[in-house]
């Protein structure tokens, strides 16, 4: 059984390497680009599991630059405006609306024609935060100062480049800074992003 697994792993590696050799910079999304899409965020962490938090749908939009370090590896800094937060399935449909400027620094590896995997650190800077709720047909909202101003984390994902500079990707944001400042609660920003981009 172990020999079969080893043979399969070796064959898979060489298959991936052969495909990767066919990748050129023209296959990849190089230069400057714009990207945006939907975000699905929630509060994660050990203390978040004790609450009725659910995914809250938001959006993100921004710019990026693909800086090639080789034929198949690129460094991609970016700046995005991102709406995050969470939703609670309670009587008032209460929710946290957290707006950030995300600054990721990603490393992309083009594993086959049009296909890439990526990951890297991300710093997120809070621009505004509020709690909302609905009661008797009216939405109530108030700003809060209890949210940590800077969220440090990581991003991982999978991308695909289409012809004419268009690219698609799915990614996961893993925040490591507690959402609430001056609190010992293990609650973090965690969520998925689905994006459509265009490289010039």
Features:
elongated, mainly beta, 10 strands, 1 helix, 200 residues, 62% strand
Secondary structure layout:
Layout lengths: L1 H20 L9 E14 L8 E2 L1 E13 L4 E16 L6 E18 L2 E21 L2 E6 L6 E12 L4 E10 L12 E12 L1
Organism: Rhodonellum psychrophilum GCM71 = DSM 17998
Protein name: Outer membrane protein beta-barrel domain-containing protein
Keywords: Signal
Describe the structure.
- The chain is built from 1 helix and 10 strands, in the order H-E-E-E-E-E-E-E-E-E-E.
- Strands 1-3-4-5-6-8-9-10 form an 8-stranded antiparallel barrel.
- It is mainly beta.
- The protein has a single domain (2-199), classed as Porin, CATH 2.40.160.
- A hairpin with a 6-residue loop joins strand 4 (73-88) and strand 5.
- Residues 1-26 have low confidence and may be disordered.
- Residues 1-20 form the signal peptide.
- Pfam families: OMP_b-brl (PF13505).
- Residues 7-200 form the Outer membrane protein beta-barrel domain.
* Topology order in helix (H) and strand (E) letters: HEEEEEEEEEE
Can you give the mean pLDDT? Answer: 83
Distance between the termini: 49 Å
Number of helices: 1
Biggest sheet: strands side by side, in what order?
1-3-4-5-6-8-9-10
Low-confidence stretches: 1-26
Q: Give Rg in angstroms.
A: 20 Å
Work out the count of structural domains.
1
Q: Biggest sheet: strands, sense, closure? A: 8 strands, antiparallel, barrel
Q: Provide the helix percentage.
A: 10-25%
Q: By helix and strand content, what is the structural category?
A: mainly beta
CATH class descriptor: Mainly Beta
Oligomer: single chain
User: How much of the polypeptide forms β-strand, as a percent range?
Assistant: over 45%
CATH architecture: Beta Barrel
Inertia-based shape: elongated
Signal peptide: 1-20
Domain Outer membrane protein beta-barrel: 7-200
Protein name: Outer membrane protein beta-barrel domain-containing protein
Keywords: Signal
